[in-house]
Each structure stands twice: as structure tokens, then as C-alpha cells.
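Dataset card, provenance and construction

Sequences and ligand SMILES were collected as paired inputs. For each pair, a complete structure of the chain with the small molecule in place was predicted and serialized as C-alpha cells. The example below shows a pair involving zinc ion. Curators did not alter the output after generation; any descriptive sentences attached to a record were derived from the structure itself.
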Amino acid sequence: MIALTIDCEQWNCPLLEGHDVPENGETRQSREGNIRLLRLLRSTKVPATFFVTGDYALGEPAQVRKIAGAGHEIACHGHSHYYRGNAELDLAADIKLAKQTLERVVGTKILGFRSPQMQYSTQLLEILDKFGFAYDSSLHPAYLPGFYNHACSPLAPFRPLPHHLIVEIPVAVSRHRLPISWLFTRVLGVRRTIGACRWLLAQGVTPVLYFHSWEFIPMRSRHVPFYYNIQTGPPLLADVERLINTFGPDQFCRVRDLLRDPVTVAKEKEEDS
Ligand SMILES: [Zn+2]
């Protein structure tokens, strides 16, 4: 199987790049991207996991409910979407607010989490476990200086905390531990992503691919480096369609489907706490 995952957030990449401009905080980009992607997922009958920020769910509650209603998984992507380099961040408070907001909007228990900017840490896992999350998918087991330094981490799901039930489900990388998702698919080509998925499947690992909702519209922001904008919109939609056609729509699953049994895991956690 392959898990297609989408990070759905308010657009704040200019802020993350150090630019305090009015477009930070807008939900339009992700909303319009979701509309295009959902059309493709509906026509191919492919399920996906959307990691949604609490802030986005507050801004676009009807769309988030619609995504859940279509059978996709809604998981948590924090609230503020500003984790890397944010000295003001209260990690536990941000996660708690996001989980409560999402559960109120969607009306079901949220099982999964992915950190904004993939800020994987033991502190993060301990907070997630305490709040009753069944899994985290913030580990990018890649080596990219300045961004990811997890070249020796496992590629397959594992239990990162001894004596705790939370499961870590790493995102997919290439054989050489290089990223293959989002901008790396757009810039380096979907054939490379497909090749890496085949290699992971041969190792018995389910590839967890990730993109952002806003990548599915043509982005033209002047306040971010070129690689945020390049090949966004129709070219990326065509890439995802090619992924689906290559492996077959019935080979795609939600991240929660990779857990042993999500309902049992959640129940065990409730009994545990
Ligand atoms: Zn994000």
C-alpha cells in the first residue's frame, strides 16, 4: 500500500522565510488547492490523510467536514503552523488547542499528528502520547543539511517511546535517504518519486508521501524562494494522477489504516491514562 498525505494549513511560508506580509495567514490557497485535489481523489476513489491545522479548521470548517465526509482521514497539524525557530511557541498548548478545535469541527476523535516543519523530537512524542494521539508522522528519515538530520532513523513504523503505545510512522525517502515528497517531486520529477516508492515497497515499507494543499494551485508568491512556486498547480496534479495510475487506486490507504487497529489502540490508550 501507499499512503498519500496532505498538509493543510493557513499559508504562512513568507513568515517562515522571515517576511511579515499581509498574505500570511490566508486560507484561500489551501482551500482552492483542496478543491482541485479532492476532484482527482473522488474520480479515482483514492483515500488520503489530511493533516489539518486548528487555525485552518476554524477558517474553513465546512470544507474540513466535507473532506472527512468523503472518507478521508482528518489528522492534526498543530494550530499556529510556526514551529521551527519560534522561541515563543508553547508546544503543548498549541497541540491541545489544535486537537480540541479539530475534534469539535469534525466530531470524531483525532488519532494522528504531523508537526509543522517536521519538528520531530522526544518532547513532541511525550506530549502527543499524553494527549491520546495514536500515531505521529513527523519523522523525515532523510539527510538534508539545515532541514533534516535523521539519516539513521528507521524507515518503517516503530514505537519511539519505551512503555508508551504511540507509533511513529516516518514519511518516505529514497534509497539514499533523500526526500521524495512535495517540492522534491515537483522539482526533481515524479519518476524519481515512483522509483523510491518501488524500492520502499520491496523493503516491505509502506511509502508515506506528503504534499501541501496549496501546492495544487499555481503559486505566485513574491515573498518565498522559487521552489515554493515552481511546478505547482496542474503539473503537480498530473504527477499525483500518474502516481495513482502507476500503482493503482486500490493500492492507496489512509495513515490510520497502517495502525494495528486504530480503535483498539485508542481504547487501550484511554484505559492507560
Ligand atoms: Zn505544514
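Derived descriptions for this record:
The chain has eleven helices and ten strands.
The longest helix spans residues 28-44.
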